[in-house]
Amino acid sequence: MTTESVANSVQLPPLDNPHERAAVGAELQVLLQDLIDLSLIGKQLHWSVVGPVARSVHLFIDELVGEWRELADVVAERAVTLGSVPDGQSSAVAAGSRVEPVVVRSMPDHAVVWELGRRAAAVAERIRARLGSIGAADLVTQDVLIKVVGTLEKQQWLLRVQLGEKA
């Protein structure tokens, strides 16, 4: 074993197959882009909200955006841990995000809540669809994704409550 391979085996978590490492890194990159875009869309809606409960929705969106940014950081750090270099620049997010953009206009408070809930649900569903294959490649990354899904699903519940829907 060469010095370089010993160093790499010590520095990077072991995965059975180097192709799995690249695939997991690619999955994390897409999720990073979605979370960053979700936070940007959240800020856009934060500035656009109008209506009788706009202030409370405005403040709640700030909390959601903060959580999405924290989740993006956790995802990016997992990618780095596995040897990937994540790209969270605006050009990468614009090119790779799967989150549906919003129309730039004033929007009633209930519509803002509904739009955010719909987008958070879509991101959570895409992650859920990949949990099995990610877990087969790397259980630690699967655990990170489970945390992300759990947070997004809790946020969906809190958004439903804002709309007066049953939990």
Automatic annotation (TrEMBL):
PROSITE patterns xref list: DPS_1
Family as reported in the entry's similarity comment: Belongs to the Dps family.
Keyword DNA-binding found: yes
Family annotation (Gene3D superfamilies): 1.20.1260.10
GO terms assigned for molecular function: DNA binding; ferric iron binding; oxidoreductase activity, acting on metal ions
Protein name (record): Starvation-inducible DNA-binding protein
Signal peptide range in chain numbering: none
Keyword DNA-binding: yes
Domain Ferritin/DPS: 27-164
UniProt entry keywords in alphabetical sequence: DNA-binding
SUPFAM superfamilies named among the record's database cross-references: Ferritin-like
